[in-house]
Specification:
single chain, 308 residues
């Protein structure tokens, strides 16, 4: 049995203020919509799309200051010290088929921990695609989220909801872009199962996965379209700001040079925002310089793109 991830932890609660602030300042603008749709009369399992590694759960934390549990791939829990730290972060291991049957069998124990989390009115977040990729759209939905929802329904004897969430990033491989998190209409798993007893379990899971897929897709593409006009005025402004951009780049070099060196050794560029988040996390004194530098860098890139 893992640590009770639902239990209150004062140190974790205090750290959340700094983490949430770091998350907000990672982006030029952030929209969080649909919080009123989160049910308050039962257990809640959030099911967002998964596109930006650690930034996705950090964004989900912005939906509430109190605790949220998360699932992550089981292979990162192999070291006991790492596993203990991840449990402190309220993260539980979930094995995928590629990890082998022995690892997948451990999911039954994790399912008990998740249900225990829901029993104590702490929402749990699962990425129903089972993996992440830095692209718009959605990979096939796995039925694991509904298996857990069904077990929770049986064990808790209270409503269980799977809540679709759409995460939209303006940039996957740049920082200081815009981001949108939109919560969709919850799926009442108990109500669905009660009204679909005439079909097989496999068909139930298939239909529930389709409902979740539609719920997530309906809440994507929420970022306002970027304007492409006033090119001449924008060009003059960016030319005048060029010396300031260079100065900011030199001062904030410890952030962006360190991040780019780390990313150069990584194949999975979905970690771009996450790597920058971690580097910024430890160098807050440079935020006033790196933030404007990253914004100006985006302006210059967008302007050059508009000229082509």
């Amino acid at each position: 049995m893992a640590r009770n991830i639902w239990a209150y932890d004062r140190t974790y609660d205090i750290c959340r203020y700094y983490v949430d602030f770091c998350t907000r300042t990672q982006f030029s603008r952030m929209w969080i919509r649909g919080l009123e749709k989160v049910p308050k009369d039962g257990a809640v399992i959030f099911a967002p799309n998964h596109v930006a590694a650690l930034m996705d759960p950090l964004l989900m934390l912005k939906t509430r200051h109190s605790a949220i549990g998360f699932g992550a791939r089981s292979d990162i829990f192999r070291q006991p010290t790492v596993a203990k730290f991840l449990n402190w972060l309220r993260i539980l291991p979930l094995a995928r088929e590629r990890n082998g049957l022995q690892e997948v069998a451990k999911n039954f124990e994790t399912m008990d921990d998740i249900v225990d989390c829901l029993r104590h009115d702490v929402p749990f977040c699962m990425y129903a695609e089972g993996t992440h990729r830095p692209e718009r759209g959605l990979l096939p939905i796995k039925k694991g989220v509904f298996r857990i929802a069904k077990k929770a329904l049986e064990d808790l004897q209270k409503p269980v909801y799977v809540v679709p969430v759409g995460l939209d990033y303006e940039f996957f491989f740049r920082v200081k872009g815009r981001v949108s998190l939109k919560i969709g209409d919850p799926i009442d798993v108990g109500e669905y199962l009660a009204t679909h007893q005439d079909i097989t379990e496999a068909e139930q899971y298939r239909e529930l996965c389709e409902m979740l897929k539609k719920g997530i897709l309906d809440n994507l593409d929420q970022l306002p379209e970027r304007r492409h006009n006033f090119k001449f005025i924008r060009g003059l402004a960016l030319l005048a700001l060029l010396p300031l951009w260079l100065v900011l780049g030199v001062i904030s070099a410890p952030i962006w040079v360190t991040a780019e060196l780390i990313l150069s050794r990584m194949e999975d560029k979905a970690w771009t925002n996450t790597v920058y988040f971690v580097v910024r996390f430890f160098l807050p004194v440079l935020w006033p310089f790196h933030g404007p530098f990253a914004l100006f860098t985006n302006y210059y890139r967008n302007f050059i793109k508009d000229l082509r």
